[in-house]
Amino acid sequence: MTKNNLSLNISVFVFLFLGWYSVQTQADVDRNLAYPAADAELDAEDIAKQVYFANHFYAFSNFSIKRRGRTLSVLVNKAENGSPITIAVERHLNNNYDQDDAIRSRDLAIFHSGNLRGTGMLVTEYKNEKKSKDYMVWLPRLRKIRRFAQPRQEDAWGGSVFTFGDVTLRKPEDETHELLGRKKMRTCLGMMDELEGKLFRYTERVPERSCRQLDREVFGLKSTTKFKNWWYDYRISYVDTNSFADYRTLYYKNNRLIKIIDRDWGLVNTEGEGDPRALFWKYWYGIDLRTGLESLAVIPRKVVEINSNRKNSFWTERTLRKIKR
């Protein structure tokens, strides 16, 4: 393979995990967002911001989805009549920067399978909202670091059901929000039937579909996009009234259900102490009802590490250059 072809190939695939393993922030949703008081009356905007806080791991100084032996997190895509396609990756997020530091966060991802094996990405976000984020990619065959532009919200993440907007780029102000009331979860979360509960490469065993959310009280949050001619008109999310975990999101176009995304969340503070929003993803499951495409992202609990003692120097170009293929 020539250097030009290799560079093109990496350019095509480089954002496979960029959405999942990068952070997009805004001025009024950051690590300082307080957990609501017990007697607080939350409106739809308040709930949307709390959901954003939980999904961006702001309850932690740093958060890693690391490699433990042969166990890694994976993304699996399966067409309606196709075979599962798998990509494995580790990720390290750092929110622990001083108040006067120009950096807000840094996120490092390392790929461990397929054509991207040995590729690394470092995403830097600055506190200055007008300053663009840095997306640096280590290309192991070229032994070089390249910079790439931010993907679009509507782009598919890794060829999956999930878009970059679904995973990380959508901000609360990109939509108008309406509180539909409260209800209880009455169904288990979705799962890829072919893989459920089975041994699978990198993950050891794929989880069974989660039913722990049954009878949990959730907010119904309707979010209508502000973008014209968008791929969906509105979405309805079921949000835990205590932790703000968004268990299920239903997407509608012309009042027809077109896509479902389910998220199984794990609680770090199992004894009931600390911030209820200190959560981690166990798995995501999505299905596009128009095409039958299914996607599953699995994060085994054993690979999750929270608030490690790594120095900020770990999240630098030097670490990218040390990645082994």
List keywords for this structure.
4 helices; mainly beta; outer membrane lipoprotein receptor (LolB), chain A
List the helices and strands and how they pair.
Blueprint: H1 3-13, H2 44-55, E1 62-65, E2 73-78, E3 85-94, E4 103-111, E5 120-126, E6 134-139, E7 144-147, H3 164-169, E8 175-184, E9 199-200, E10 204-205, E11 217-225, E12 234-240, E13 246-253, E14 256-267, E15 279-288, E16 294-298, E17 304-306, H4 317-321
Q: Percent helix among the residues?
A: 10-25%
Oligomer: single chain
Rg is 19 Å
Give the integer mean of the pLDDT values.
Answer: 87
Structural class: mainly beta
Number of domains: 1
Main β-sheet: number of strands, strand sense, barrel status?
15 strands, antiparallel
Helical segment count: 4
What is the annotated CATH architecture?
A: Clam
Shape: globular
Portion in beta strands: 35-45%
Order of secondary-structure elements? HHEEEEEEEHEEEEEEEEEEH
Q: What is the CATH homology-level superfamily?
A: Lipoprotein localisation LolA/LolB/LppX
Total beta strand runs: 17
Account of the protein in words:
This protein has a single domain (3-321), classed as outer membrane lipoprotein receptor (LolB), chain A. It contains four helices and 17 strands. It has helices at residues 3-13, 44-55, 164-169, 317-321; strands spanning 62-65, 73-78, 85-94, 103-111, 120-126, 134-139, 144-147, 175-184, 199-200, 204-205, 217-225, 234-240, 246-253, 256-267, 279-288, 294-298, 304-306. The strands form two sheets. It has a 15-stranded antiparallel β-sheet that branches. The longest helix has 12 residues, at 44-55. The protein starts with a helix and ends with a helix.
